[in-house]
Amino acid sequence: MLSQPPLSSHANQVHLKNWYPIPPIFWRPWGKLPENIPCHPKLADFANCMKKKGRGMSIFFSIIDGDYHELAEDAKNACRQLSTYIDYKCCEGVAEIIVAPTMSDGFRGIVQTMGLGNLKPNIVVMRYPEIWRRETLTQIPSTFVSIINDCIIANKAVVIVKGLDEWPGEYQRQYGTIDLYWIVRDGGLMLLLSQLFLTKESFESCKIQVFCIAEEDTEAEELKADVKKFLYNLRMQAEVIVITMKS
């Protein structure tokens, strides 16, 4: 006899200590989207780095502009292609392709409805639109800002990845540092992601540097000590560097 229904009211009680990323990845179905859409094939590699020991599910999604009645079959074919690529990349995830009148409308629907209970995505991952300055692509800034605003309203974290062409492959070992610029309070998201990166073979030889910004009239050494204590309490090894600026 069940003491609770399968979908209990406790499904949304997520504590800070057991929060883990469930990212929807903004993807490009081959030949279906123009260059100005914030997608990139290497987002699959980035998504794998966000999982600890392979745990957690990703949702790879994309939006095709147009009429659903006319493009439903195209969406199904694109979804099959995407599912095949996800399997090839050994990602734990599912594919979703929807048809909407505009990119903004489609994303707004996805961010509201995708997932169920604690399986709802909580962190949106997409590429930074690096070609937005081209005169022929005037809609990029407004679409990009609209997507960010929708994420904020839906209470989703956002990871915007720049320079994906240079992102290392799964077995390309990296050396050097992972630099975190702690400029605004983000709830510890950057710290979490950097720790998840270190669990991957590609980044396990890297060190973490945390850069903090202090105004000239503040006590830089005191700030550095506070941050080091905070990181120590998190059992996180990182070098703390304080940068002093006028404002």
TrEMBL record:
Task: Give every SLC12A transporter C-terminal domain span.
Answer: 41-162, 173-243
Where found in the cell?
Membrane
A Pfam entry, by short name:
SLC12
Q: Which domain of life is it from?
A: Eukaryota
Task: Recite the UniProt keywords alphabetically.
Answer: Membrane, Transmembrane, Transmembrane helix
Q: Which GO terms describe its molecular function?
A: chloride:monoatomic cation symporter activity
The UniProt entry's GO CC annotations, sorted and at most eight, read: membrane
As for membrane topology, the entry says: Multi-pass membrane protein
Q: What is its main location?
A: membrane
- Protein name per its UniProtKB record: SLC12A transporter C-terminal domain-containing protein
User: What is the species of this protein?
Assistant: Dioscorea zingiberensis
